[in-house]
Amino acid sequence: MQRIGVFVCWCGSNIAATVDVEAVADALSKEPGVVFATNYQYMCSKSGQDMIREKIKELGLTGVVICSCSPRMHEATFRKTCESAGLNPYMVEIANIREQVSWVHKDKAVGTEKAIILGRAAIAKVQLNTPLIAGQTPVTKRALVIGGGIAGIQTALDIADAGFPVDIVEKNPTIGGKMAQLDKTFPTLDCAACILTPKMVDAGQNENIRILSYSEIEDVKGYIGNFDVKIRRKARYVDEEKCTGCGTCMEKCPMKKVPNEFNMGLDNRTAIYIPFAQAVPKVATIDANYCLKLNTGKCGICSKVCLADAVDYEQKDEILEEKYGAIVVATGFNPISLEKFDEFAYSQSPDVVSSLEFERLMNAAGPTGGTLLRPSDKTHPHTIVFVQCVGSRCDASAEKGKEYCSKICCMYTAKHAMLTREKYPDTEVYVFYIDVRTPGKGFDEFYRRAVEQYNVHYIKGMVGKVVPEGGKLKVQASDLLDNRQIHIDADMVVLAAAIEPDKSARPLATKLTASMDTNDFFTEAHPKLRPVESPTAGIFLSGTCQGPKDIPETVAQAGAAASKVISLLVKDNLVGNPCVAKPDELMCNGCSSCEKVCPYGAITYEDKPFRGPNRTTLIRRVAVVNPAVCQGCGACTVACPSGAMDLLGFSNRQIMAEVDAICK
Amino acid sequence: MKTEDMIKEITRISGGNPAKCMKCGKCSGACPAYDEMDYHPHQFVNMVLDGRIEELAGSKGIWNCLSCFACLERCPRSVEPARIIEAVRVVTLRKAGANHLKPDDIPARLDDDIPQQAITSAMRKYAK
User: Fold this and answer.
1) Residue A494 maps to which CATH number?
2) Which residue of A has its CA nearest to B79?
3) How many domains in chain B?
4) Cβ separation B28–A398 shorter than 8 A
5) Domain span at B9
6) In this complex, do A462 and B35 lie within 8 Å of one another by their Cβ atoms?
7) Are residues A339 and A466 in the same domain?
8) What is the distance between the alpha carbons of residues A161 and A153, in angstroms, rounded to a whole number?
9) Which pLDDT score, from 0 to 100, does residue B128 have?
10) Are A205 and A347 found together in one domain?
């Protein structure tokens, strides 16, 4: 029989207001095995913890039950407390009487009764608990960063700076991401390229960083500290080692009609290409969808003109297998497709553009060399209408758009409006807004400058429709403050499209077993206290893959993710979770059910000799669990038809004892 | 009927939800009959939410709504102003005595003075 101590927490008034803590302690003191029961205002406080320690020593407790908040909150705290008093941490059980009782019940009598029942269940479980000792696994001191935008670059630089090798896997031919496409950045108006490209060069030259561009994650196995990752290096048909990035192949390539994705399809590039002048690595890539040689067998000009002999039409995808201790997801965002927003005539007129397209039209390295011209007739627009919240803040039941605020649009629209007025003072600029959201350092001042200094017309209302007519865009909109409908003949309309996570994020999350929200943003381990960690151990989040954010926030999060990775990689060993599956070999019938359901690949089978009757030896196929890989999810224990699989710390007997105690 | 009940009744009939409105004004930006109305689509929604239903029902504007559903189609919040205003019309019609119009009665009642929208509303109401 265990000697159990029960500690009931008030959690201030959080629990005590709806649960009679005195009565709970009193009732639980009468349970079998309980030698001590008390209640206290804040069990998690220093004095509360001291009391637990004292009682363990004084009464020789062999098990402890804490009736308090969710184990997600303070289980680790109380386990540590008990461990410091010499008790095995797995002899501690938490009865959650806050989230499951006081916060969901109003009636004190009902709450008290339920709290007693949950306490009883925890006591019944402790009776069957056995001390568990966590194993240790070594850490591979190397990190993988998935995505080479500003988030990935910054994370990699920070990890590399601490002396650990990092690989950046980027699906495009160059790192740089969305920031490389931007013209200026709010609210300081620094040129995006001027602050980004030095970082790209740093990443390219850092001896601890290896850039695997034009590559994708194929498969991820393993666990924190020990990931095995397969990386597909897509065939770029150019030898990266040999290519000097001279660009001669691009000049000579006869296939010049490929939509240039770097310029949002506003101009064309060649089939063999370097995305932009400051690309890192500065290596040419052949677009297999358009290359004449690859598609028709005729041509081969790039190979002939290449002085470095770098072109290789026979190149194949390669699979690289690498080991990492930590993985950082930095897969970024894209603007949503605007095709469903017919009311703004996006598909009907080339002069209706998305904000990212407008960004390219303003950029000195863009399709117009930085001169703002209408895409349709290459004339200077004199009236520009900006529409905010296109596809953001939509109702969940609406057929198009996202529920969330995309966060960056108010500021970049103010930037676009301001820059337009600065460069072309003869242009009338209208911004239709629902709310102007500027909660950031220097943000509201920036927006006010657009209004006060640059005379941008900010109109509270929304554009209802845009009709292309006679070379103009007829804009019909509401002006809510004036309670009137207005009509503007615009030359260009710019739509602030909502942003969404990159499409590669969802399949990647499946490979990583990392959780996502309904919008495909990666979820963090705790929304406030663990914002850069995924709930899956060893996976970290950087940048907009976790939620909409601007560049300063992305860089801050990238640094935070790096520091979490560094604090993992400096450890030589990791203490594992001892609550892992354990098969009873004598009961296992070798059916493989558990192996099939295990999401972590922790279960294998082996043929083992067993003693049979009359001194014979039987070879039987039995399940073996790798405790370092097992995450203790319990799927195998449910799948096992013979009841051979059990979870240490959550055995079937323990769970049934809890159920019995509840149903008593 | 109490104001609260009236809000509930109109919300129920319309199947929309004025509380979802974020006051963006896209409905009024989309409305082709905007200048024909004393109250505009975004105001319909707000007036129902505010309980100013008598005032809204008394306005001529609600009969000038074309029931073209442009506002409903473009509303990003699924508030569906067109349905809300139609509900106001339905309630107004019922109150006027023509309580529970039967579809069979409609042909006999058609004359040049009946607003087109009332017929459309009645037909749509019985379409299910």
Assistant:
1) 3.50.50.60
2) A395
3) 1
4) no
5) 3-127
6) no
7) yes
8) 12
9) 38
10) no
A254: domain CATH number is 3.30.70
Q: Is residue A659 part of a domain?
A: no
Residues A447 and A452: their CA atoms lie apart, in Å, by: 9
Residue A517 sits at φ, ψ, to 5 deg, of -90, 180
Is residue B55 within 8 Å of residue B47, measured between CB atoms? yes
Give yes or no: residues A173 and A55 share one domain. Answer: no
Alpha helices in A237-327 (DSSP H): 248-252, 292-296, 301-305
| Residue whose structure tokens are 């500065």 | A282
Same domain, A487 and A424: yes
Residues with Cβ within 8 Å of A556's Cβ and at least 6 positions away in sequence, in order, are: none
**Of A60, A62, A68, residue with least CA distance to A25:** A68
Strand ranges of the sheet holding A492-497, from the earlier edge strand across to the other edge: A352-354, A492-497, A383-390, A428-433, A457-460
A489 domain residue, yes or no: yes
Please give the structure tokens belonging to residue A520. Answer: 């495909």
DSSP summary character for residue A522: B
Residue A244 belongs to domain spanning: 236-316
Based on the fold, state whether residues A461 and A374 are members of the same structural domain.
Answer: yes
B113's tokens: 């003075």
Whether pLDDT at B125 is above 60: no
- Please report where in the chains the tokens 């927006």 appear, as a residue: A447
Residue A87 predicted with pLDDT over 70: yes
Q: How far is A373 from chain B (nearest CA, A)?
A: 27
A462 to B20: CB separation less than 8 angstroms, yes or no = no
pLDDT single digits (tens) A378-410: 999 999 999 999 999 999 888 889 999 999 999
Residue-wise pLDDT tens digits, A518-530 = 999 999 988 899 9
Q: What percent of chain B has pLDDT over 70?
A: 81
Final residue belonging to a domain, choices A128, A145, A160: A128
A103-152 pLDDT, tens digit each: 999 999 999 999 999 999 999 999 999 999 988 889 999 999 999 999 99
Average pLDDT taken over every residue of chain B? 83
Q: Is A350 helix (H, G, I), strand (E, B) or coil?
A: coil
Residues of B with CB under 8 A from a CB of A: 20, 22-31, 34-35, 40, 42-43, 70, 73-79
Crossing angle of helices A108-128 and A652-663, rounded to 10°: 150
Alpha helices in B1-128 (DSSP H): 3-14, 26-30, 41-50, 53-57, 61-64, 70-74, 81-95, 106-109, 116-127
User: Domain boundary at A457, A479, A500, which?
Assistant: A500
The structural domain count of chain A equals 5
A605-622: burial string, b at 16+ Cβ within 10 Å, e else? eeeeeeeeeeeeeeeeeb
A78 in a structural domain: yes
CB pairs under 8 A between A and B: 76
Same domain? For A214 and A264 the reply is: no
Tell me whether residue A107 is in a domain. yes
**Cα(A586)–Cα(A588) distance, integer angstroms:** 6
Please tell me the distance from the alpha carbon of residue A543 to that of residue A538, in angstroms, as a whole number. Answer: 17
Instruction: Give me the interface pTM, i.e. the ipTM.
Output: 0.82
Say yes or no: A294 and A362 in one domain.
no
Strand partners, A334: A500
Task: Give the closest residue to A434 by CA, choosing from B26, B12, B118.
Answer: B26
> Is omega for the bond preceding A173 within 30 degrees of 0, making it cis?
no
Q: What CATH number corresponds to the domain at position B105? A: 1.10.1060
Single out the residue of A107, A128, A93, A118 nearest to residue A18, CA to CA.
Answer: A107
How far is A55 from A47, CA to CA, in rounded Å?
12
For A184-240, the pLDDT digits (tens) are 999 999 999 999 999 999 999 999 999 999 999 999 988 899 999 999 999 999 999
Of residues B23, B29, B35, nearest to A464 (C-beta): B29
The verdict on a CB contact (< 8 Å) between B26 and A395 is no
| Residue A485 sits in the same domain as residue A382 | yes
